[in-house]
């Protein structure tokens, strides 16, 4: 038995919480994972995992083994990558997660640029608007809108994504241009679900002052492309991240409504599980990513 390889399987099973998920990550069959765990337990002379049809739990010896080996193997992997990268190339796998609003246009472009510099790098880029567990979902780093709630993560602030009120010129020609926030009640509003409070309000900012505005949207959506498409179609005034509509503003397809006000900005954070055991390829991408994100028009 290759003890180091068996430990890697054991660690992955613990972190993923199931042999099926670990097998998928490792590219081997579930029966192979089960066999390796049995052999490792035989080698250790003790049960490492308590298995049942519904759950899998670490035994006390299993917990001791996981605590003692998971960090050590991460250190070994990082050392190997350091040596390889010192030879002039960044290789390996990089698993990235991000929100659709930033990912489709900006994060994907940054990933492509980084991969062009390091063609031996294999990247998995997942774009979706949901909270994830970095370990369980096998993600190296994630870009998040809003500070993550998990306390066991490194959360590095990237900046804030500006939000503004915009509309199609045709819509404003037909329905008039609002003079202040009180006029918004006369307009169809299109808003993102992420900025609408439980009380049905949005927060408008003018310098240091903020105002809570009660709104009754004609469309609420969690999809940025649907939101922008509805605005372009002249269906109302909408709250949009500046980075989504910068080109539309430049071309005149959309214009600012209430240009003296902005909607409360959303903070962006880059999250990863550990700074101590951060793999060199992840560290290199973070160093490349953060300045690129901060150059995006609309991130301040």
UniProtKB/TrEMBL annotation:
<dbReference type="InterPro" id="IPR000847">
    <property type="entry name" value="LysR_HTH_N"/>
</dbReference>
<dbReference type="GO" id="GO:0003677">
    <property type="term" value="F:DNA binding"/>
</dbReference>
<keyword id="KW-0805">Transcription regulation</keyword>
<keyword id="KW-0238">DNA-binding</keyword>
<keyword id="KW-0804">Transcription</keyword>
<dbReference type="InterPro" id="IPR036388">
    <property type="entry name" value="WH-like_DNA-bd_sf"/>
</dbReference>
<protein>
    <submittedName>
        <fullName>DNA-binding transcriptional regulator, LysR family</fullName>
    </submittedName>
</protein>
<dbReference type="Pfam" id="PF00126">
    <property type="entry name" value="HTH_1"/>
</dbReference>
<comment type="similarity">
    <text>Belongs to the LysR transcriptional regulatory family.</text>
</comment>
<dbReference type="GO" id="GO:0003700">
    <property type="term" value="F:DNA-binding transcription factor activity"/>
</dbReference>
<dbReference type="InterPro" id="IPR036390">
    <property type="entry name" value="WH_DNA-bd_sf"/>
</dbReference>
<dbReference type="Pfam" id="PF03466">
    <property type="entry name" value="LysR_substrate"/>
</dbReference>
<feature type="domain" description="HTH lysR-type">
    <location>
        <begin position="1"/>
        <end position="59"/>
    </location>
</feature>
<dbReference type="InterPro" id="IPR005119">
    <property type="entry name" value="LysR_subst-bd"/>
</dbReference>
<dbReference type="InterPro" id="IPR058163">
    <property type="entry name" value="LysR-type_TF_proteobact-type"/>
</dbReference>
């Amino acid at each position: 038995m290759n003890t180091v390889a068996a430990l890697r399987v054991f660690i992955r099973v613990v972190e993923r919480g199931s042999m099926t998920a670990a097998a998928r990550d490792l590219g081997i069959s579930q029966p192979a994972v089960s066999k390796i765990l049995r052999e490792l337990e035989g080698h250790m002379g003790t049960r490492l995992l308590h298995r049942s049809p519904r759950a899998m739990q670490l035994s006390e010896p299993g917990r001791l083994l996981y605590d003692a080996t998971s960090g050590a193997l991460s250190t070994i992997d990082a050392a190997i990558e350091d040596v390889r990268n010192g030879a002039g190339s960044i290789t390996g796998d990089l698993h990235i997660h991000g929100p659709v609003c930033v990912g489709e246009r900006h994060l994907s472009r940054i990933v492509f640029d980084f991969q062009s510099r390091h063609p031996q790098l294999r990247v998995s880029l997942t774009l979706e608007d949901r909270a994830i567990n970095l370990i369980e979902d096998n993600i190296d780093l994630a870009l998040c809108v809003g500070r993550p709630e998990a306390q066991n993560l490194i959360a590095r602030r990237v900046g804030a994504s500006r939000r503004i009120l915009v509309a199609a010129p045709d819509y404003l020609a037909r329905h008039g241009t609002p003079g202040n926030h009180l006029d918004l009640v006369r307009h169809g509003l299109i808003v993102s679900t992420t900025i609408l409070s439980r009380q049905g309000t949005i927060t408008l900012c003018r310098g240091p002052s903020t105002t809570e505005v009660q709104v009754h949207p004609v469309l609420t959506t969690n999809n940025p492309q649907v939101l922008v498409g509805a605005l372009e179609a002249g269906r109302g005034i909408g709250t949009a991240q500046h980075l989504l509509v910068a080109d539309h503003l430049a071309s005149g397809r959309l214009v600012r409504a209430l240009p003296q006000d902005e909607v409360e900005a959303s903070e962006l954070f880059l999250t990863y599980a550990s700074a101590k055991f951060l793999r060199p390829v992840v560290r290199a991408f973070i160093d490349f990513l953060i300045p690129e994100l901060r150059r995006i028009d609309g991130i301040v």
